[in-house]
Design brief:
Elements: E1 9-23, E2 32-36, E3 42-46, E4 61-82, E5 85-91, E6 98-102, E7 106-107, H1 110-132, H2 142-173, E8 175-176, E9 182-183
Antiparallel strand pairs: 1-4, 1-7, 2-3, 4-5, 5-6, 8-9
């Protein structure tokens, strides 16, 4: 490709993205999934696919981005050559500021920019769909989540039973007054 010269008009594809929400592919919007453990036990847990993290519950939807192409005509205002390639400084629609476009992103005709923009948009959408189909925390399986929450429930049930036994001991040892009321 022939390098562009300062003052030459060039075309470049720009991408805007709009936030959209799609139904979670794991829980289908129910916010919960059913996990069948190895022993056949079925456990319903909160969906990790649409879990936003922190203390918020699963949402039933996943944030996704839709990309749109815009093609703009620019004027080359500078050329940077480095060991990694050629970059062009381009005017930002005549407002005095500029930004940099890599040689593979800048084209002589609008048709070339449109063709490259369509390919880049498809690449961005493929990346977005890969992210969409992955769990929030890929390091943990559904079975791990179910096992973890079952262990927490068992621990809390033991603690609850312990505290109930302490309350019954305290009630038995409480001093009663003549009118039948407990006192400390």
């Amino acid at each position: 490709m022939k390098p562009f010269e300062i003052g030459q008009a060039v075309f470049m594809a720009h991408f805007g993205r709009q936030e959209t929400f799609v139904t979670c592919p794991d829980c289908l919007g129910s916010k919960h999934v059913l996990v069948i453990l190895g022993d056949g036990t079925e456990v319903t847990i909160e969906c990790g696919g649409c879990d936003p993290g922190g203390y918020q519950p699963s949402q039933g939807v996943i944030r996704q981005y839709a990309y749109d192409n815009k093609y703009h005509k620019h004027t080359v205002t500078g050329v940077k050559v480095s060991t990694t390639g050629v970059e062009y400084e381009l005017d930002n629609y005549g407002d005095g500021s500029y930004f940099t476009g890599k040689a593979e992103e800048v084209f002589a005709t609008q048709e070339e920019a449109i063709a490259a923009g369509v390919v880049r948009k498809l690449e961005l959408e493929v990346e977005e769909n890969k992210r969409l189909m992955s769990k929030t925390k890929n390091a943990r399986s559904w079975a791990w989540n179910a096992t973890y929450h079952r262990q927490c429930i068992k621990r809390l049930e033991r603690e609850l039973e312990y505290h109930r036994s302490k309350v019954s001991v305290c009630s038995a040892k409480a001093k009663h007054t003549t009118d039948g009321k407990e006192s400390a």
